[in-house]
Each structure stands twice: as C-alpha cells, then as structure tokens.
Amino acid sequence: MAWDTEGTKRRLLEAAVHEFAERGPDGARVAAIATRAGINKERIYQYFGDKRGLFEAVLTDQLEQLAAASPLSADHAGDLAEYAGHVFDYHRTHPQFLRLLHWEGLQQQDGELPAASARASHYAEKVASLAAAQRAGALPDEVAPGYLLYAVAALAAWFFAVPQVVRMILGADTDDPDALRAALVALVRRLEIRA
C-alpha cells in the first residue's frame, strides 16, 4: 500500500494547529502533535524539518484557509462590508488562527516571522484590490488602502481576540454572534460611503 504523504501532512498540520494554539510555539511538543495526529513524530522532522518549520507551515496553511474562505479580489473589493462579514465568520469557526497569531506576536524577538514574504505578498494582493476599487470609484479614497484593510481586519478579529473587553463594552449584546456580525457589517458599510 502506498504511503499517503499529503494525508499525513494534513493530519500533522491539523494536530499542530491545536497544539500550537493551546501552548504556543515554545510550549508545544512534537511528541504531543504526533500523538494527536496518530503519526510517528519522525514524520514531522521528515516533512517540516523541525518544530519551527512546522509552526511556519501551520501559519501559512491557516492564512491560506482564511484567504480561501474570505477572498478579496479586485472585482469584489468594493463590497468591503461583505468581506468583513466573511472574516468574522472565519474567526468565529476557527478561533485557533488568532491564537496562533497572538503566540507569534508574543514570542517574536528576532524580527523573523514565519513565511514573512509569502504572508506579506498575500496582504499586498488585498491592498492592491482595495486600491483598484478606490481608483474605480467603488470605495472612497480618503483612507489609504492598507489602512482600510487593517481597520477591517482589526474590527473583524477584535471580537474574538479579546472577548472579555468586548463583553465589558457591549454587555449582553455579545451573547448573539449574529448580532455582532450584523453590527460589524454595518460599521464597515460606513467605511464604504464617501464623506
């Protein structure tokens, strides 16, 4: 029987997402990831090099999943509110992604980020899509497209990044995620209106 390399990598990535989200890159253990995946830990070293390589692969994979779930192409960039809703939905169903980013931010000391070039390129494409929408008149141009993307990403993620602060500010309104999503979409719609 042939070895399912891609299936094995996928199982390791899925197990690693949860281990890294729970314990961070330093606290996560290769043996625990392998056990969770039901795969010999030697496969981690074979496919990803080391734990840092696996963390990089996990972040890259998670970013690709977010991009697939919430695309922002030039022809759709004019509907920024809908994009914000998709990002909100992704974070709601994949809370580990923000945890991974927080761990990365907390432990970054040497200035190196996993897959920094690929990740920056991903965001640059989104910024370019927003710039194109602004040039076409589909979005106002009072705010630079990079700041616009940052604002939408921050608004969509903040609900999940610090839910305790959201509860303190909004109280009982936080009990209904659909209401939070609707409020987010309404806020971002305001960013789409020319002053």
Automatic annotation (TrEMBL):
Xref: InterPro entries: Homeodomain-like_sf, HTH-type_TetR-like_transc_reg, HTH_TetR, Sco4008_C, Tet_transcr_reg_TetR-rel_C_sf
Protein name from the UniProt record: TetR family transcriptional regulator
Annotated Pfam families: TetR_C_21, TetR_N
SUPFAM superfamilies cross-referenced by the UniProt entry: Homeodomain-like, Tetracyclin repressor-like, C-terminal domain
Residue spans binding DNA: 29-48
The HTH tetR-type domain, residue ranges: 6-66
Keywords: DNA-binding, Membrane, Transmembrane, Transmembrane helix
TM helices/strands, residue ranges: 147-166
Highest taxon of the lineage: Bacteria
